[in-house]
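From the shared-data thread, chain only:
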Amino acid sequence: MSAVRFTFDDDFENSGGGSLSQKKLEEMRAEAFAQGQEAGRAEVLDGLQQSCESLLHNIVIAAQNLVARQDEQTALMHKEAANLAFTIMQKLAPAAVEKMPLAEIEILVERCLQSSPLEPRLVIRVDEAILSVLQEKIEQMKAASGYEGQIILISETMPHMSDCRVEWANGGVERDFNSLQATIEQAVQLFIEAPEVVANPETGQIDPKAGTISETITT
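Structure, as tokens:
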């Protein structure tokens, strides 16, 4: 093998191979920088999209919760109104019926006369305070209904002045003020004590990780 002469006049820094390597290195740096920028931009956009989705979810849940609370408040107001109306009725109804007890009895007797035209006899039991007043009207009521049977009026001490019992051979009917009031009270209590609407726990939860709108925009 022949020896290669080394000359000190050669400039290796300015050789073509060295310039090509430096250019390649710069291109690689620029490409890596661009890729890093793109990856960072994609990460920021992805995070912003997730935050927006979480915020939108929270807005929907908050709206649903507001509607549920509004429904609960409306139901509560209805119950309070029913309770108030019943309390007023308890105070006013007895006085109103005592003022005009005969009207309720007349309605009951008229219905019995109209629905029992073939009954040979009807027995009507009323309070002592009502008997004389009803006697004055019974013949007129009998003629108006077309009832041709016998009507027997009997006075009894009733729990309430407007109470009345009408009896015939195979049955009878009565008006009991206290029972009517108890039935109304029971119906009102069932309405008042009805369970409230409970929000769905699966859809009624707000994600605390979503943050606020201002937090999402500034971050």
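Helices lie at 16-99, 101-115, 128-145, 177-192, 213-218.
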